[in-house]
Design brief:
With about 280 residues, this protein is of the alpha/beta class. The protein is built from 8 helices and 7 strands; from the N terminus they run βββααβαβαααββαα. α6 crosses α7.
Length: about 280
């Protein structure tokens, strides 16, 4: 039974978000949010509908380093005149609440920090209708072929540039990494299995010849032509276009994926792209 996605027109929007925080240097110290960035994405077309980013000043400025500890450039001077969290809490709540949350390692980090920040000001925290953690999904589905599962490593693997460690830039990079990983997995799922691809090394084609007036069959070996039997399947879908074009085509699958394992839906319905 084929799954129809027409019913998903009212699917909740996806919000990719990221936090930049202080880095505790002593036991017992907590993380303080220094920057929030998010993009709201249409689940049907992965079109960016809205974006928002803001620096955030912690009440105790001394927790922020005078010099940046990472390449994010967020210093004490940078957040000195930024709004306090309670001043932007309403906007952040409206962006996050009732949407699918997406991000890299958000289950263990960003979700926890958001809850802490709202608890600090005595307000209820926003609630997601689902969570897509790309760290868990890609660890399971894509593996460590890039070296490790850090966003910077995955982005470098696909030639997407260096991670800037700024919230808005990072969430946009996160979305692009997901698209590229999904494309690779889709293409791999389109290749025949080992049992179907034995002709890669040597192809055997039956041809006819005549001996003493009788038609006989013999095997010829060809490394150019695939077998012509009914069991032959096209083995290399790349010929239809470049990886970039295939990425665009796979967007339609990625945006339809819902739930905790969206890539399962992509792979399940991937062959429809090649029809």
């Amino acid at each position: 039974m084929e799954v129809s996605y027409s019913a998903n027109e009212n699917a909740p929007e996806i919000v990719f978000f990221d936090l930049e925080t202080t880095v505790p240097n002593k036991s017992g110290q907590r993380f303080w949010v220094l920057e929030f960035g998010a993009i709201v994405v249409s689940p049907q077309k992965l079109v960016e509908l809205e974006s928002y980013t803001t620096l955030i000043r912690p009440k105790d400025l001394s927790v922020v380093s005078v010099k940046p500890r990472r390449c994010d450039g967020i210093t004490r001077a940078a957040v000195k005149n930024a709004p306090y969290f309670e001043e932007v809490a309403e906007k952040i709540f409206s962006i996050l609440n009732g949407r699918v949350w997406a991000g890299h390692n958000i289950r263990r980090f960003d979700c926890v920090r958001i809850k802490e920040a709202f608890e600090d000001i005595g307000r209820p925290a926003p609630v997601p209708v689902g969570i897509i953690d790309s760290l868990g999904i890609l660890t399971e589905k894509f593996g460590r072929r890039a070296g490790n599962m850090k966003m910077a490593t995955l982005a470098s693997y696909f030639g997407l540039g260096e991670q800037k460690h700024r919230s808005l830039d990072d969430v946009r990079m996160n979305l692009e990494v997901l698209k590229h990983c999904a494309t690779v997995l889709f293409l791999e799922s389109s290749l025949p299995s080992t049992s179907q691809s034995r002709w890669y090394g040597t192809s055997h084609i039956m041809t006819r010849s005549r001996t003493n007036g009788k038609s006989t069959c013999k095997e010829e070996t060809s490394r150019k032509s695939p077998p012509t039997s009914l069991g032959y399947q096209r083995a290399v879908p790349y010929a239809r276009g470049s990886l970039e074009k295939m990425t665009e085509r796979v967007k339609g699958l990625l945006c339809k994926a819902q739930g905790n394992q969206p890539l399962n839906h992509i792979l399940k319905h991937s062959h429809s792209l090649l029809r």
